[in-house]
Amino acid sequence: MDMDVLGIKLENCYGIQQLDASLNFLGSPKLKGRPEVPPGSAFSIYAPNGFMKTSLARTFLDFQEGRDSQDLIFPARPTSRSITSDLATPIASESILVIKPYVERYAGGGTSTLLVNPKLRNEYEEAVRNIETTQEDLLKALKEISGWPGKTTPASEIKEVFQFKSPYDFFAELANSLDGDTRFSDLSYVEIFNDKTIAAFKAGTLHDQLQEYMSKYQELVDKSPLLSSKFNHAGAVDVSKNLQNNGFFDANHTLNISNGAEKLEISSARDLEALVVAEKERILGDKELSKKFEAVDRQLQKNAELKKFREYLTGHPEILAELADFNGFRKKLWNSYFNVAQIALSSFATAYASAKDVIAETAKQALEEKTKWAAVVTQFNERFYVPFKLVVQNQQDVILKGETPKIVFEFQDGQGTCGVEEDKLLQVLSQGEKRALYILNVLFEIQARLESTQQTLLIIDDIADSFDYKNKYAIIEYFNDISKIPFFRLVFLTHNFDFHRTISSRLQIARSRRLFAKKNQGTLSFVEEKYQKNPFLIWKSGLAKKSSFLVACIPFVRNLAEYCHGVTSPHYLKLTSLLHIKSDSRTLTVGDLEALFKATLLDQATLTLPNPEKSVMQLIYDEAEELAAKADDDVELESKVILSIGIRLRAEELMIAKINDAAFVESISSNQTFELYSRFSLDFPNARDHIVVLSQVNLMTPENIHLNSFMYEPILDMSALHLCDLYRKVKALA
After folding, report:
1. Number of C-alpha atoms within 13 angstroms, CB side, residue 253?
2. Residue 76: inside a domain, yes or no?
3. What is the spatial distance between Cα 374 and Cα 441, in angstroms, rounded to a whole number?
């Protein structure tokens, strides 16, 4: 996916009723009437407020995160979204990265993969994978042997019983200390030990009664002529099985059994088993022992789970003798299972032993490695101006275990340095500094994609909003650097014209890739920015050709006249009469305007304007009328300047006529529109419709008329449709 041509087709996405745009990153040869366009990796799209920039960014974010887009206000409207690369090839969601204006707590998905030495990580992962695979096989075997229910393994239960820190070390050591005892391996662990039975064992009454039962049982065993504490009935049964399995009696051997003072000769396994069973029944049938069992039995009938356990005990009465030390019996059970799972346990121990050296060595190297994300932190510390430095703590775990880097902040106030948690740091930082901290996470994410050579389209949504100038230019320089990465494509979206102008200049974005968003109803389109540098240079070169340029230049030349000739000069005063209604406003002609421009703009000595007898005020109104009639959301600066001048002149004419006080009007020396509005509001307090419209004139037009070559962003942010509407309203009042 080359992403040389980005196709965007949207319908009903968060208010964008329609957008069909193609962004071409390829170059084009010089054609007739068109200059050569070099290939480029970046577009900058300036969108005045209300022009759905946020909606576009949100749609791309949906695409990145695999969500459907929608129209939140009109959810019933059908939404369609197509974002494609060359030849209408769909773009993969992982190839899109939307960088939002600000997210307080943001962590990108790729930060943990930033490694200088991928071989190191691969060796570690292979070793760990081998250990985990054999441990998983062991746990599966133990699950089957113990009868552990459900889909989970008994790993957490084993850890609780044996209280170890590292399961790896526990199982490895266990493999070398097996005793071969499998006496209890046929028992089901959860039938004996579950939440209810363990709670009952821990309760004082049952525990004491079990102790009494066990004490009496042991007393009877000790008095047995056949059995003892070391050779109980369970051991006798094992002896019988082993002798039979090994053909002892088949070889005509006999066994002498001490039965008190007598010795009995046993010649078959059946006789031995009968002797053991008889002795077992004698002991378990003892009246006192039975009485003590009844006390235990009553405790085991309190709920369904314990009744089930009691039934299990009936089939396995030998368990009862073990339960006085129930924790010890839990270990005996697992030891029996471990002995049965000897092969799986040995396989794990072998894998662990062979991998242990690899893990230790890679851990050692990891501490010495300089990682790419560490370089990102250094880059951040060097590029951005903030009152803190960043240090990464968990370098080893990031490399080996894929953990997200843990950033530690060292706050610096010029007097000293102090470590501080992120929560506290966020409480003391300014908004601009918080945004700088957010940029760090953006750098991580981009660096991860750089390391993996992931072809990426970056949608950068007003990233420099609320930054001070130092950090704003640091961000611009950073994007200038990454714009040179061949597999990155950048699309800047911004409400900030100064940022648009600066990013376009610093990244040397070609004219055809410097766009203005234009809106007609709900349809959004991108048009090439008309003025790539200073619009006043364009206007000045076309004063005699385009009336719109001539009118738009009036406030600019008035500013120059103020600096060059002074506020008492006829040049300044006459130009002011074309921006405010004065006694001579109606009499000033295009010929007068030509003379004023020549006197102030020294490079216009040969300027010859058409229709020198025409009233300049009438020319202004003609241009404003044409724009208002067209009612297009024109993005061009001169259209908005002309409408603003026309609005104010008509508003002042209306107020002067209504107030009808020539002496008052003559006495106004500054802020004429506001002074007229204040007097009008006093004289006509009930003319609410007039006051509402005139207050809008005061709010919307001053900055649009008092403009200069450095700061004309406010008027660009103003919608031309709003100005057209206001012009029509003011005209209707008259």
Report:
1. 11
2. no
3. 12
Q: Report in angstroms the alpha-carbon separations of 697 from 506, 645, 671, 676, 722.
A: 37, 10, 13, 12, 11
Identify the three-state secondary structure at position 217.
helix
CA distances (Å), origin 36, targets 4, 30, 528 = 17, 4, 15
Helix 326-340 to helix 155-162 angle (10° resolution) is 130
Can you list the positions of beta strands (E) in 484-623?
488-494, 514-520, 523-528
Cα dihedral 691, 696, 699, 701 in deg (nearest 10): -120
Pair 131, 351: CB distance under 8 Å? yes
The reply to whether 238 and 162 lie within a common domain is: no
**Distance between CA atoms of 417 and 388, rounded to whole angstroms?**
9
Whether residue 680 sits in one domain with residue 545: yes
Q: Which amino acid, 487?
A: F
Cβ contact 579:705 at 8 Å: yes
Check residue 214 and give its pLDDT. 65
Inside any domain, residue 477: no
377 part of a folded domain: no
Task: Identify any residues that bridge with 707 across adjacent strands, giving them in sequence order.
Answer: none
Same domain membership, residue 266 and residue 350:
no
On whether both 177 and 193 belong to a single domain, the answer is: no
**CB neighbour list of residue 29: distance below 8 Å, 6 or more residues apart:** 36
Model pTM?
0.57
Residues 599 and 728 in one domain: yes
d(CA 571, CA 645): 18
Closest residue by Cα to residue 690 from 644, 723, 714, 657: 657
408 domain residue, yes or no: no
Query: By the 8 A CB rule, do 492 and 529 touch?
Result: no
Are 266 and 255 contacting, i.e. CB atoms less than 8 angstroms apart? yes
- Same domain, residue pair 195 and 131: no
61: closest CA among 96, 103, 11? 96
Same domain for 539 and 678, yes or no, is yes
Name the burial class of residue 644, with classes exposed (0-12), middle (13-18) and buried (19+) by CB atoms within 10 angstroms of its CB: buried
Domain region containing 630? 535-733
Answer whether 43's CB lies under 8 Å from 124's CB: no
Q: Distance between CA atoms of 525 and 2, rounded to whole angstroms?
A: 24
CB of 359 within 8 A of CB of 128?
yes
Q: Do 205 and 252 fall within a single domain?
A: yes
pLDDT per 10-residue tile (average), the chain, 734 residues? 83 92 84 72 86 88 92 91 82 89 55 50 77 90 91 90 88 88 87 80 67 66 65 60 72 72 76 75 70 66 71 72 81 92 91 81 65 73 77 62 62 72 71 73 81 89 76 87 93 87 90 88 84 78 93 92 92 94 95 95 93 96 92 76 93 95 92 92 93 88 58 64 87 86
Taken as a whole, the chain contains a residue count of 734
CB 721 within 8 A of CB 635: no
What is the number of domains present in the chain?
A: 3
Only one residue has tokens 């974005």, namely: 509
Q: Residue 498: its pLDDT value, please? A: 79
Three-state SS for 676-734 is HHHHHHHHCCCCHHHHHHHHHHHHHCHHHHCCCCCCCHHHHHCCHHHHHHHHHHHHHHC
Residue 509 burial (10 A CB sphere; 0-12, 13-18, 19+)? buried
